[in-house]
Amino acid sequence: MDHDFTYNFIEPDKEIAEFVESLGTFQNLSDEAKEVVIIPDGRIDLFFSQSASEPFHITLIGLETYPEQRYINPHTIAFVVSFKPLAVEYILNTSIADLLNIGKELSPDFWNFKAEDIKDFSYCCIKATQKIKELLPQKVDERKRRLFELIYTSKGEMSVQELSGKTGWSSRQINRYFTKQLGLSLKAYSTILRFRKSLEHIAQGRLFPELNYTDQNHFIKEVKKFSGVAPKELSKNKNDRFVLLSVLKGK
């Protein structure tokens, strides 16, 4: 356990849970940079952060499709809102198709957050929740609402054809929406969600496929694709490099 690297993630208020998966904070209290591996998890992250070497800034991170090694600067503190895809259109009012595997800096006064705010996690949660409630749409396209509900509850295991049949939305329209809003196909997104669910099993030491992988080799290949390592090494999570896995283990 890395005691200089701390984190805390909580579930959102029920009123915004359709759009937000979690609210979190992390700090690197060390004098040295913290190595982490960012792995695809199907979420869109909004970071409010500052460090000893960087001023307060706000960054919107798009979806990831491959693992990436990054370093968190010494004495970094951050607050993060992790959104579900439906929030892209209805809360953020934008497209993140051009943010695949990258992020972009937002205005420093976005949502009226200040540098001192992120030192108080509870206050940040209240402030962000209140802002998101103000942005809640009066109406959501029921096809989209149903689509994401099915994608999440099936852990990414429903085919495009099945989802199309259950939502009354053509496969072509669904993929066009995904590509336009998120920058990848529904199938690609569903594969990421399946991997994400497998992480929960790996966090518990279950290193074999429990979802609809064709066999053990297929499972290992996909875990390597999205994490960069085999399930056994991922499970060890040396130095808490895989923060998402650490969070899942802590549940």
Polypeptide structure, described:
This protein has two domains: 5-135, Jelly Rolls (Sandwich); 142-249, Homeodomain-like (Arc Repressor Mutant, subunit A), CATH 1.10.10.60. The protein is 37% helix and 19% strand. It is built from nine helices and eight strands. Strands 1-2-7-4-5-8 form a six-stranded antiparallel sheet. Strands 3-6 form a two-stranded antiparallel ribbon. β4 (44-50) and β5 (57-61) form a beta hairpin. α3 (142-153) crosses α4 and α6 packs across α9 (243-249).
Structural class based on helices, strands and sheet pairing? alpha+beta
Could you give the order of strands across the largest sheet?
A: 1-2-7-4-5-8
The second-level CATH architecture of the largest domain is Sandwich
CATH topology (level 3) name of the largest domain = Jelly Rolls
CATH class annotation of the largest domain: Mainly Beta
Estimated helix fraction: 25-40%
Quick overview of this protein structure:
This protein has 251 residues and is α+β, with helices and mostly antiparallel strands. The protein has 9 helices and 8 strands. The protein has a 6-stranded antiparallel β-sheet with strand order 1-2-7-4-5-8.
